[in-house]
Amino acid sequence: MPSLLSSINVSTIALSTAVVCALSGVAVYAIHKAYRKRRQFMKVANVCKLIIYPIKSLPGIEVNRLEVTTNGTKYGPFRDRSWLLVDKENRMITQRTEGCSKLALLSLQFKDNMLWITAPDLPTLKLKVKTEVDDEVIQTNVWGDPMEGVYCGLEAEEFFAQYLNKTGTKLIQHIPKQSVRDGYIEVNNAKVIRNAKYPIIYQDKSGLLVINQSSVDDLNSRLPTDALKTSYRNFRPNILISECDAFDEDNWQWVSIRDV
């Protein structure tokens, strides 16, 4: 039997431009791998939550709709994981970075067409979405892929440098015309390869992540009674689904939600 954590499947879905309605209970349809030759979709689950993560490795924001684009999800002008923190040497910062797990404790909200970020004892940082290159372009690297982003200013730099106690921490934003990375897809039910048809920006491997609440519940049921329980938030999905069996998503070849 595989380890419990490796058994949790955060499924990836190939992207096309469309809108996922955020209303709770929207049906999820799938083609089971066993019946993929029939190309017949059947109802398998319901959408429970939609979440977008404007800044990589910061908390997500629950929303009532998501637009699915060719390289990730979008809510109004805000694109998923389109902001990125880098250190003084322009290396990517995530919660995995030493001393940066506290990024998970920040509070984010959309307000006045801006992204507001709050932290104890710091003034609220208010970010507008950049639509063009209006400052220095920072060169960085995301999991081995050269990437770039536009510097978001001294106010953002001071906010995150103080919060993380790391001098030189900068925030950058990806602009749509800047370079993208090849996404990852699964082939032959196991092998994962890069594919330029599904581009991503600062995401780890896929532009859209889905997780099954029943799979998370199953994991928690197997943990020792005194163990800290996990949550869907630990897996940072864009779409949380419910009303299906644990790990049933492992059997889905294709997934459809509304027009996506």
Summary?
With 260 residues, the chain is mainly beta.
Description:
This protein is mainly beta and 260 residues long. It folds into two domains: 28-45 and 212-232 and 240-260, no CATH class; 52-209, no CATH class. It is built from three helices and 21 strands. It has helices at residues 4-7, 154-164, 213-222; strands at 11-12, 18-21, 27-32, 42-52, 61-63, 65-69, 72-75, 78-79, 83-86, 92-93, 107-111, 114-119, 122-127, 137-142, 145-151, 170-173, 181-187, 191-200, 209-212, 239-242, 252-256. The strands form five sheets. Strands 1, 3, 4, 5, 19, 20 and 21 form a seven-stranded mixed β-sheet that branches. It has a five-stranded antiparallel β-sheet with strand order 10-9-16-15-14. Strands 2-6-7-8 form a four-stranded antiparallel β-sheet, with no helix packed on it. The protein is globular and about 50 Å long. The model is unreliable at 1-17 (pLDDT under 50). This is MOSC domain-containing protein. It holds the Pfam family MOSC_N. GO terms for molecular function: catalytic activity; molybdenum ion binding; pyridoxal phosphate binding. InterPro entries: MoCF_Sase_C, MOCOS_middle. Keywords: Membrane, Transmembrane, Transmembrane helix.
